[in-house]
Amino acid sequence: MAAENGDNSLAAPLDTCRIPESALYNAALMTSAEKQLPPIFPHRHLLGIEGLSAADITALLDLADTYVEQNRQVDKKGSVLRGRTQINLFFEASTRTQSSFELAGKRLGADVMNMSVGSSSVKKGETLIDTAVTLNAMHPDLIIIRHASSGAVELLSQKVSCSVVNAGDGAHEHPTQALLDALTIRRRKGRIEGLTVAICGDILHSRVARSNILLLGAMGARVRVIAPPTLLPRGIDRFGVEVFHDMRKGLEGCDIVMMLRLQLERMSGSYVPSQREYFHYFGLDYEKLGHAKPDALVMHPGPMNRGVEIDSAVADDINRSVIREQVEMGVAVRMAVLDALARNLPNELRI
């Protein structure tokens, strides 16, 4: 009918209507760029909590909240990292952190590689810088690294062109642990500002304590540290915390009781008389917890030494302990961090 009406458009040769492959390719690239989510985190890496603003932290927590809900659905998979490559590089043993980063990357659609340091060239004498250069040549988009030396993660970040996430470096920082702790607190208490948080135990060797002190302070919480003098770093008072050597006094009126693992593997001398005596004075049981607020929450980054830092009955108390929730929040927070950093990655081809 169209031809009879003088409209010859349908009669045109098919190849004259065909869009060139190059144009299709460019359109695909444009569509991908247009679909890229807006940046919410103005940093290339996440090396620590230090240097982050309250707005930066809030943006990550808000995004993590959405992933908590996604992770509770039957279909947990997303595609925001589709086409991206994530390398998990752990120089120290890890269960919770490495597995949750792996799960986070896969749920976002990334190709995830866990690099086995035990069988890598690192064991053959390769330096961290050489490892960084080698990995960079593979064009990853995100590298998650845990290392025993403070500052090692920042050094590696200077040698690669992708985004780097600190999964713990020595006794320096563990930013995603502090973020998941903050998310756990905020979801349970509705806020962080104005709360009194007691961080108890091995402050000296704890990167978790340092990151939490920085984050909680930035978010307006009142922070106390409770430990024997031998397990407190010099100049701890300069971090704006209140220092206590008595658990009962330190816990008075607290909203959150955050216990830390006694890190015996980092101790070269005698920091406590014995584990039994340590628990007597600084281990959390119901008697000591009774000095905190009646609705105070109990936290622990894991792994727990039951009967050393915390009594099993307290750790397993479903009304007071949020230790299992911390694990759940860990996956959501790490998804948020990967998502936020990926939004700042370039979309164009790398020649």
Please tell me about this protein's structure.
This protein has helices spanning 14-17, 21-35, 54-71, 96-107, 128-136, 152-157, 175-189, 207-218, 247-251, 275-282, 286-289, 312-315, 323-342, and strands spanning 85-90, 111-115, 142-147, 163-169, 196-200, 222-226, 242-244, 256-259, 297-299. The protein has 351 residues and is an alpha/beta fold. The protein has a 5-stranded parallel β-sheet. Strands 2-1-3-4 form a 4-stranded parallel β-sheet. The longest helix is centred in the C-terminal third of the chain and has 20 residues, at 323-342. The radius of gyration is 25 Å and the shape is globular. The termini are far apart. Mean pLDDT is 88; it is low at 1-34.
